[in-house]
Specification:
The complex is a heterotrimer of chains A (337), B (373) and C (394). With 337 residues, chain A is an alpha/beta fold. Chain A folds into 2 domains: 23-123 and 225-328, D-Maltodextrin-Binding Protein, domain 2; 126-221, Periplasmic binding protein-like II (D-Maltodextrin-Binding Protein, domain 2, 3-Layer(aba) Sandwich). Chain A has helices at residues 2-16, 25-32, 58-71, 87-92, 107-112, 155-165, 178-186, 197-206, 234-253, 260-266, 270-275, 282-286, 292-299, 303-310, and strands spanning 35-39, 48-49, 55-56, 77-81, 98-99, 115-117, 122-124, 126-131, 145-150, 170-175, 192-196, 213-215, 223-225, 228-230. A 5-stranded mixed β-sheet of chain A has the order 10-9-11-8-12. Chain A has a 3-stranded parallel β-sheet with strand order 4-1-5. Chain A starts with a helix and ends in a 27-residue tail after the last helix. Chain B folds into 2 domains: 80-98 and 158-372, MetI-like fold; 99-157. In chain B, 72% of the residues lie in helices and 0% in strands. Chain B has helices at 19-28, 32-58, 68-71, 80-84, 86-97, 103-120, 126-149, 165-191, 196-211, 214-228, 237-262, 266-274, 279-309, 321-330, 338-372. The termini of chain B are far apart. The relative contact order of chain B is 0.09. A 4-stranded antiparallel β-sheet of chain C has the order 1-2-3-8. Chain C has helices spanning 13-45, 78-110, 116-130, 134-149, 180-211, 217-235, 260-287, 290-298, 303-333, 345-357, 360-392, and strands at residues 157-159, 163-166, 169-172, 174-177, 240-243, 246-247, 252-253, 256-258. Chain C is built from 11 helices and 8 strands. In chain C, strand 1 (157-159) and strand 2 form a beta hairpin. Chain C folds into 2 domains: 9-44; 78-173 and 244-392, MetI-like fold (Orthogonal Bundle), CATH 1.10.3720. The chains are: A alpha/beta (337), B mainly alpha (373), C alpha+beta (394). Chains in contact: A-B, A-C, B-C. The interface between B and C is large, with 55 and 57 residues.
């Protein structure tokens, strides 16, 4: 008799939900009135709630920028905290509209996960955080060390490849979340913790005694991090991509949230006028309002502001790194409007 | 010469010391081993209890909005940390950040307590309890979701991704057992069915979920559920955990109810049959009401196990009360106060689980008495 | 049961039964088909594909703890990770159930002690460990108690230069046997030891029934076991090699390493399961009629002797079945390893391997399959035990 119920249920489900999946994310987002953004939610500098519970960080800022572009209101974001394991499933299952969770762009992910990488908001690389007490100055001295890793990331693979190439040995201890990894390192389960360097800075600043640990100079991998969208919705991918480009271009053109109103009144520079919607209509082809980029800059700010707000306090200087603008020796380069 | 019977003299009366001394001797100094244990125990108590009392209560820091007070007082516990973040730990991020909305979960909690009391105590006549049970199973979950999630009647939206704390623990545990209950009844009946196919399907279902730890089922739900459902159905993290918990719990509930069914004497079935009852009447009116009553202690025991197991949702990224408490001692403001947060969450679970196990024992004793009468 | 002939078919219970069963099968079949069709549609949509050949490709990460299986980064395959995972789960499971049995019996008997303190402490132990979630206990033991209290490698606790306790693990010497004939000799020695223990116990029992003089059976068994072990190792001495832990820069190399998470998990499982077993033991002892104890007392048995010789042997029949299901729970609970970084099957295979390969369906099915097999074996064991004790009953 119970199976009758299951039968009825399955028939009802099969009939009721057999319609084709909607591929128009923008329309879905507008109907819902909020952008669902997948973030880490516990990683200082990238996405972590402040005292008032508001999500803060450069990853979170990309989400705010997209909301500002779509709704003209940066606050219309719902943040969903995801673990490294579940992030891609959440994206492809439609649980989130975009993923902004320090995610590395790799061929395997591009080709086999059904997701699209838009651009990079942070160029990172894997490094090592070590206890000063073990007296190591270079990663090449780490042979035989016990290393804490957060599983579920490219980190594990990179570490194995690096130690194999250098013919060194190690003992891994794999944890599930970044918080447990930190706890393992802090309580002495390992002498070395490996992760992306930006994360190492955040982890180090969260230690009970930050002075007891240091980051080694070596970088053992390329980790271009950036927002990710579902494959097959190019219009939405463009919106996310250009929201980030708008922030980077604003940085290059010297427009910030503080001076944007002033500049809008006085500027004669064509690129700036185009970006702020004073000339032409860049929003139309994206399906957005005319002043979409203006709203991003006003409410969220330029990439430089975002970086200074969230990453500089962690001790991650921008000058001289890959994350500086291309005009200042870095590789951050956004196409023109 | 005839043997003369000489009785052995009677043994002296028992030691004529006072009852208090006898009691002491019996309980503390009965044998050399007992004496050693008593001395050892006194020593242990002497060295631990004053220290613990001082640390946890007498020297503890109870007030303050930041850690300065606690840092100045390293020999005492820092309960101020948990006081400042109390609502966050109990109700999750949204309600922790919006104190003016706290009444919503509190109203639901009060209702829950009232309903649970009325259902479990015998103050209500049977008929009303049935109605109340229907209300608790159908209306109350909708009301809970509506009020806690909001989004209607002008209530601010608290997205499920912002749920957490003790509230989430309760929602998962109570939601899990309520959803698993009907499934458990069907499975228990199926397992005792005379139809071999139905029986084997039920056994397979029950044994599969019972064989696996909840973690693997949670992993399964978070990795496979989005694959096996149509892509239009969005199942968020809380719902996925609830699905996993329901499947898991339905197997245990089924086994508890099966135990109850087994205790119903065969005569009851035969009497119903001879009166011409159909299967669903026999079960629904005669057997199940008795069987469910008998299986209450077993169900409560599976609920206690489930209640503790809800902490595992932390591993798939939900913030239950234990994880929420942990975030306190890992935050920049309060880092390092690990003992406090562990003790706090252990205390919450201990009070709930110990209380429930006491309740289940008392029901069991009562049932045993009734059985003997 | 069946109704009279000639009635409508739906009044015939037998026919209704058959119809219901067909319906049930069709329903379940349809539901499964529905799930599979969704999965294949979704996977095609997301360009995922399901395969099992990933099991035979090289593992892209290193496994930290692989005591009975050699793991070489670059040559070992994913199926070997699976094997190591099972082996590590069974290792902590078996070590745990031995510990939990000892603790459970001790605490269960202590709860019935006539010393008030012992009784109370045992009750506190049981209620405390039973009513707090195991995950919390695992975290507490590992991150709050054990790791912070262990010294670093340079300050290792040194026990006679052979055993070193540090926060990177507990390092012990290990005897490795290199030749196959030597392995056979040791295996033979162990078999002989077990046979002689069984024979000795039979003889001791017979002697006890005849003379009423008890022997320290347990200790003599242990002695026999150790004796045979030493003897066989003495024979194969030339083919064995003792590996001692040597201090290197970051840890000890050589010897055998017990990882700290294994130790923490073991303690947590022993306390948690021990508390449940203690309750089984207590209930079992109480289930033995009061008369048995009183009879023993009136025969002049002391409390401990009456427990050992009269009450516990009878209680075992009540104690063992629920205790076996506690063993099963213990093995299932060992999956909490994932929280503290012990390489059990859930952490290694369902966690890391799943992330590296993305083969969710295959990996989850394999992992759940392992637990299902373990559980089926356990119920088989319970059934066999129940049948054997039923035969004893008169």
């Amino acid at each position: 008799m119970k199976k009758l119920g299951i039968l009825a249920l399955s028939v009802a489900m099969a009939v009721g939900f057999a319609s084709a999946a909607s591929a128009d994310t923008l329309a879905d987002v507008k109907k819902r009135g909020v952008v669902r953004c997948g973030v880490d939610g516990g990683l200082a500098g990238f996405s972590a709630p402040d005292d008032k519970g508001k999500m803060q960080g450069i990853d979170a800022d990309v989400c705010y920028a997209v909301a500002a572009a779509v709704f003209g209101d940066a606050s219309k974001v719902e943040f969903i905290s995801l673990t490294a394991k579940e992030r891609f499933t959440a994206l492809s299952a439609g649980e989130i509209d975009m993923l902004s969770r320090n995610t590395t762009h790799t061929l395997r992910r591009d080709a086999s996960l059904g997701v699209d990488f838009t651009y990079y908001n942070y160029i990172d690389g894997q490094g090592f955080l070590v206890k000063k007490a073990i007296g190591v100055k270079s990663a090449l001295e780490l042979s035989g060390a016990t290393i804490c890793i957060q599983s579920g990331t490219t980190t594990e693979r990179n570490l194995a490849a690096y130690f194999r190439a250098k013919k060194m040995d190690y003992t891994p201890v794999s944890y599930d979340t970044s918080v447990q990894t930190r706890e393992g390192f802090e309580s002495g389960a390992c002498d070395v913790l490996t992760s992306d360097k930006s994360q190492l800075a955040a982890i180090r600043s969260d230690l009970k005694d930050p002075e007891s640990a240091m980051v080694l100079p070596e970088t053992i991998s390329k980790e271009p991090l950036g927002p990710v969208v579902r494959q097959g919705d190019d219009a939405w991918a463009n919106i996310v991509r250009w929201s980030l480009f708008a922030m980077i271009n604003a940085d290059e053109l010297g427009v910030t949230s503080k001076n944007v109103d002033e500049i809008a009144k006085t500027t004669e520079e064509f690129q700036i006028r185009l970006m702020l919607g004073l000339e032409g209509d860049t929003g139309k082809s994206l399906g957005l309002s005319k002043d979409w980029a203006m709203q991003i800059i006003k409410q969220v700010g330029s990439y430089g502001e975002s970086y200074t707000r969230h990453l500089v306090p962690l001790g991650l200087a921008r000058e001289g790194t890959l994350n500086a603008l291309w005009t200042k020796g870095g590789i951050l380069y956004a196409p023109p409007f | 010469m005839a043997k003369v019977f000489v009785p052995t003299p009677p043994s002296p009366p028992p030691n004529s010391s006072t009852p208090a001394i006898q009691w002491l001797k019996r309980n503390f100094f009965n044998s050399p081993f007992s004496i050693v244990m008593t001395l050892l125990s006194v020593y242990v108590i002497w060295s631990i209890v004053p220290f613990a009392l001082n640390w946890a209560i007498l020297d503890a820091t109870w007030t303050g909005t930041d850690r300065t007070g606690c840092d100045a007082n390293p020999d005492g516990a820092c309960w101020a940390a948990l006081r400042v973040r109390f609502w966050q730990v109990m109700l999750g991020r949204f309600y922790g950040a919006n104190p003016e909305e706290i009444w919503r979960p509190l109203v639901i909690f009060a209702l829950f307590v009232v309903i649970a009391y009325l259902l479990l105590s015998e103050t209500l006549p049977g008929e009303y309890r049935l109605y109340l049970g229907g209300f608790a199973l159908i209306v109350f979950p909708v009301l809970t979701y509506g009020l806690i999630h909001g989004g209607m009647f002008g209530l601010k939206v608290a997205a499920t991704s912002q749920w957490g704390g003790f509230m989430l623990t309760l929602i998962l545990a109570v939601g899990g057992i309520v959803l698993a209950f009907p499934l458990g009844i069907v499975l228990a009946l199926g397992r005792r069915s005379s139809l071999p196919v139905v029986q084997w399907l039920s056994i397979t279902f029950i044994e599969f979920w019972r064989a696996n730890p909840l973690i693997t089922i949670l992993f399964m739900a978070s990795n496979l559920l989005p694959l096996f459902l149509p892509s239009e159905i969005e199942v968020d993290k809380v719902a996925r955990a609830l699905v996993a918990i329901t499947l898991f719990q339905s197997a245990y509930t089924a086994e508890a109810i099966r135990g109850g069914l087994a205790s119903i004497p065969k005569g009851q079935f035969e009497a119903a049959d001879s009166l011409g009852f159909k299967y669903h009447h026999t079960m629904g009116l005669i057997v199940l009401p008795q069987a469910l009553k008998v299986s209450i202690p077993a169900i409560v025991n599976t609920f206690i196990a489930l209640f503790k197991d809800t902490t595992l949702v932390g591993i798939v990224g939900l913030l239950d009360v234990f994880r929420m408490a942990q975030t306190v001692s890992r935050s920049t403001e309060w880092k390092g106060f690990d003992y406090e947060t562990y003790i706090f969450s252990a205390l919450i679970f201990f009070m709930c689980c110990y209380g429930m196990s006491r309740y289940s024992q008392s029901i069991e004793r009562k049932l045993n008495r009734e059985h003997k009468d | 049961m069946a109704s009279g002939k000639g009635g409508a078919w739906y009044n015939d219970r037998r026919k209704i039964g058959i119809a219901l069963q067909i319906l049930a099968l069709v329903g379940v079949g349809l539901f499964i088909w529905y799930l599979i069709s969704n999965a294949s549609y979704n996977m095609a949509q997301r360009r995922m594909e399901m395969n099992t050949w990933f099991l035979f490709s090289e593992a892209s990460f290193k496994v930290g703890f692989h005591p009975f299986w050699d793991f070489e980064l670059g040559t070992s395959k994913y199926w070997e990770v699976f094997v190591i995972g099972i082996q590590n789960t069974l290792l902590v499971g078996i070590a745990g159930l031995i510990g939990a049995t000892v603790v459970g019996f001790a605490v269960g008997v202590a709860r019935l002690s006539d010393n008030w303190f012992v009784k109370t402490f045992a009750s506190i132990f049981v209620e405390l460990f039973r009513n707090v979630p195991l995950l919390l206990q695992v975290f507490f033991w590992n991150f709050v108690v054990i790791l912070p209290s262990l010294p670093s490698v340079s300050n290792a606790i040194d026990i006679f230069g052979t055993l070193f306790i540090t926060n990177k693990g507990i390092f012990t010497p290990i005897i490795s046997v290199s030749e196959n004939w030597a392995r056979l000799v040791i295996l033979g020695g162990l078999t002989l030891a077990i046979i002689s223990i069984i024979l000795f116990r039979r003889w001791a029992k017979k002697r006890f029934y005849e003379t009423a003089k008890p022997l320290p059976v347990f200790w003599i068994s242990v002695l026999i076991f150790i004796g045979f072990l030493l003897l066989s190792f003495a024979i194969v001495q030339s083919a064995t090699d003792v590996s001692m832990p040597q201090q290197s820069r970051f840890r000890f190399t050589g010897g055998f390493t017990v990882p700290v998470p294994l130790f923490s998990l073991w303690i947590a499982l022993v306390c948690y399961t021990g508390a449940f077993i203690a309750e089984n033991v207590r209930a079992g002892i109480l289930s033995v009629g009061k008369g048995q104890r009183e009879a023993a007392m009136s025969l002049g048995f002391r409390h401990s002797l009456s427990m050992k010789l009269i009450q516990i042997p009878q209680a075992l029949r009540v104690i063992i079945p629920p205790t076996i299901s506690q063993y099963l729970n213990l093995i299932k609970n060992s999956s909490l390893a994932v929280a503290i970084g012990y390489d059990d099957i859930v952490n290694l295979f369902m966690g890391i391997t799943l992330n590296q390969t993305g083969q969710a369906i295959v990996i989850i099915a394999m992992t759940m399959g392992v637990f299902t097999v373990i559980s089926l074996l356990t119920s088989l064991l319970i059934n066999i035990y129940n049948r054997s004790t039923q035969l004893v009953e008169r």
